[in-house]
């Protein structure tokens, strides 16, 4: 799926469009997250609300999810078990929604007034991490309790991913670096340098031997994590 011209479009791997663009309602689609089973997509709209889509049918499912979001939702992540979706907004608020009902889970979480650029569930679904313009990575329990603040950056945290066992967090930043941390205590283990501009996205390979990064320096790079 991709966002283009105020629409959600579906494409083949070869870049050919599949069917018609989704007929959206609510303005510009800022970000989307696909469910683990590939059947649904949650989209964050310019009006500050999140909507659920049936990918096969290209149709909305139910009304917009509840939540008085004052600013645009900047990032979304679907829990690996498919039960919930978390979103971080430009006013520093984190909200989570029950996928089945669209209702908020617990109270909104807010520790900072700065943009949240990235949010990511652990593979075990017992934690999630967030990062943004205040340069801090925060790890939260599934109940929304702050477990740890990881400090070490002096610029925006732009992307996060977890190791499969949940013991490590990889992070990307506008300071051009990629870092590896222990999730339990926030100890910094590795700093990877090579990009010449902000690193905007990270992905860990399925066998966890390589890390893939994308950057504003117009490159995608593959890193050998052993070296």
UniProtKB/TrEMBL annotation:
Q: Which domain of life is it from?
A: Eukaryota
Q: Which residues form the signal peptide?
A: none
Asked whether the keyword Repeat is assigned, the reply is yes
Cross-referenced SMART domains: WD40
Pfam families xrefs: WD40
Q: Where are the WD repeats?
A: 22-63, 73-107, 109-141, 150-191, 192-227
Keyword terms, alphabetized: Repeat, WD repeat
The protein's name in its UniProt record:
Anaphase-promoting complex subunit 4 WD40 domain-containing protein
